[in-house]
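agent> step 3/5: call structure_predict on target 'CARD domain-containing protein' (Brugia timori).
agent> reason: downstream docking stage needs a structural representation; sequence fetched in step 2, passing through unchanged.
tool.input:
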Amino acid sequence: MKEVNAAAMNHCLDEVPNLPALNISYDGRVEWNPTKSMDATIHQFRSAVLSANVRIIKQILKDLHNLAPGQIERLIALLINRTSVEPTKEALMTAICIGSRPLVEFILSLFMEYPGEERNEV
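tool.output (status=ok):
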């Protein structure tokens, strides 16, 4: 039985493409409204979160186009909870799992009050 599994594994390994040689990578879903400046929007998002302006936060999240309404509501709850860094870490992990690079960048801007915490475990 072990010989069959080893042979099957070797066969699978022979078919794995050499990704660095293909020069491809995954950058997440880079969906963005090109009429807005990324820096200005990140600043607007950060200001809205710090002032708990749910209306502005919701509009920015809707502009990303790849978030479901349930995801938006969950993210808003995490983002406006500034009692500790933990809700912001959870929001960051959620953004990473969703695969939205702009959202990850937005949430990373919220760690200015918690230097280095974006690298610590959740």
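agent> step 4/5: record observation. Residues 29-119 form one domain.
agent> proceeding.
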